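Minutes, project huddle
Topic: does the predicted pose make sense with NAP bound?
PN asked that the exact inputs be recorded in the minutes so nobody has to dig through chat later. Recorded below.
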Amino acid sequence: MKAAYLTHKAGAEALIFGDQATPAPKAGEVLVRVHATAITPSELDWYPTFHLASGAERPFPIVLGHEFSGVIEALGAEATGFQVGDAVYGLNDWFANGAQAEYVVAPASMLAHKPVTLDHTHAAAVPISALTAWQGLFEKARLQRGEWVLVHGAAGGVGQFVVQLAKQHGAHVIATASAANKAFLQALGADAVIDYRSTRFEKAVSNIEVVFDAVGGETLERSWSVLKPGGRLVTIAASSADSAEPRVHDAFLLVRADGGQLAEIGRRIDSDALRVMTAGAFPLQSVHVAYHHAERGGKQGKVVLEIIHQN
Ligand SMILES: NC(=O)c1ccc[n+]([C@@H]2O[C@H](COP(=O)([O-])OP(=O)(O)OC[C@H]3O[C@@H](n4cnc5c(N)ncnc54)[C@H](OP(=O)(O)O)[C@@H]3O)[C@@H](O)[C@H]2O)c1
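Predicted holo structure (tokens), as shared on screen:
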């Protein structure tokens, strides 16, 4: 199969487009013919990208891209819930090779049927961002109807879903973003938008029940002061994962695959309750250009790689 892959530990500029062996599904897994996969630039800094779950170094070649949309090509033993030919979207194991390739192997439990109203390109941009928003708001923060939510990084891939899901849940939503994204975020349901470049949010808001932080650093540090007593803070910034400060460590959320949640997210997309934006699509052959685009600021959503199959 064609794939983009790394032959040594390096950045996206070292990705090679070429031929690799097609993977085979093991028990409980499916083989997916990939149509699109979204880029997550920070994946190059993640521990599982260059390690196995055992702690050993991962063998090269390494294929990136753990969220995707495609069609089931083959079922491994005991893989249930899907048929060959089903259009699916979802995640695969962070420690395994990803979907910047014509085929990827994934546990069936990490997939759901693709929303019928989305093409593969848009569907590929949903799993990581929407599951992170869902798990942060509903599992970690236990958001209640009528509460006030402050969303940092609201125009980004994750933030867009946080704004929409929180609003649908009956919360009041304040978003921080660049001024250029104000109208866009209001259209998604934000009640107020703070331009983080011109206004210090802690001067503008207080008594917040839930802060959802997709930015980290000093944005996270300044956020504790706007929480009301008993308020909850969720951060997804990687720098918080191994923080020595217990409250930051406790606030950190690492998204996990969940086919059931993805199915519910898909139902909301198909009923027009959730909108999905991408920041452009590039063919897999143009992977370097795509990463360059993905690493630039000022976008609304994720950059997607499209896989054009020759047969
Ligand atoms: N822990 C997890 O499970 C998990 C899951 C998914 C993502 N993440 C991480 O979460 C972060 C966000 O992901 P994403 O996909 O949403 O990224 P993204 O699409 O690149 O969005 C980031 C957004 O943050 C905005 N921003 C930057 N500085 C800001 C500030 N000081 N205040 C408010 N907004 C600011 C950017 O706006 P401008 O471009 O206008 O500056 C951009 O809209 C990334 O670091 C990603 O690696 C973690």
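Observations noted during the meeting:
- The pocket of NAP is lined by residues 42, 128-129, 132, 152-153, 155-159, 176-178, 196, 214-215, 219, 236-238, 253-255, 297-298 (CB under 6 Å).
- Residues 129-251 form a domain with the Rossmann fold fold (CATH 3.40.50.720).
No decisions taken; revisit at the next huddle.
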